[in-house]
Specification:
By secondary structure, the protein is an all-alpha fold. The chain contains 3 helices and no strands.
């Protein structure tokens, strides 16, 4: 199984990528923060499935929310806000 920091780093890098993509897409449209969090959840869930197949271990949903999705969402929002304010 992946260690916690590797698992988090994968999600942080994924968050940076999606932060840039969300900036490009959402700069044309105005959406609320709840909608962005739902889009982030939908975008990051396939990464959980890929990591389950790669590590061949069962990653629980709670572990993923704490060590994966939270880091992904915070990084995505940080990158998006920085790019939005440029």
């Amino acid at each position: 199984m992946l260690s916690d920091w590797k698992f988090s780093m994968i999600h942080i890098l994924y968050g940076i990528l999606f932060g840039i993509l969300f900036f490009i897409y959402l700069s044309k449209y105005k959406f609320g923060i709840i909608f962005i969090a739902m889009l982030a959840f939908i975008a990051s869930y396939p990464l959980l499935i890929l990591l389950r197949m790669y590590t061949k271990t069962y990653i629980t949903f709670g572990y993923w929310l704490k060590n994966g999705y939270l880091h992904f969402l915070l990084t995505l929002l940080l990158v998006w806000v920085i790019l939005y304010n440029l």
